Input
Amino acid sequence: MLRRLPILALTLLAGCSLLASDADRGAVGPVVFSLPVLDLDGDGPAEPQRFLIVQTEASYNCLLPLAADLDVDGSRLLVEIEGIAEVSACATAIGPARADFPLSLADGTYTLTIEHLGRLDRYRIELHDEDLTVTTLEAEVSRYEASEG
Output
């Protein structure tokens, strides 16, 4: 039984490269974003926090990080997606490549721009007393998906 463990470990960790080749890493297809409020500490002392979660529509045989950056400048949010981040190992599980960004947004109106595949998609985000409204202004390579919270 001990002799099979290294082979099993290699199988679990090698899955990352099977569906995310170097060519796929920079050419991820459309992405989906959501803006949930998450309580990461359960019943702990921390307050629930809003996140911007961006993930690929495609699933991979490994939970891969999405190479993306978030820049917040006043009421403007810019997400730049470069592709799938390189990893040396990951656990085998089927799912999208994903990037999570914690947000600290006061009530107000914001413009979210997603730069992906050479295009700029734009959305208006209105946040008032924890009520969230997202309006698509222009979208070709991304879409908003409402989340609970």
Observations:
- The helical segments are 5-14, 16-19, 22-26.
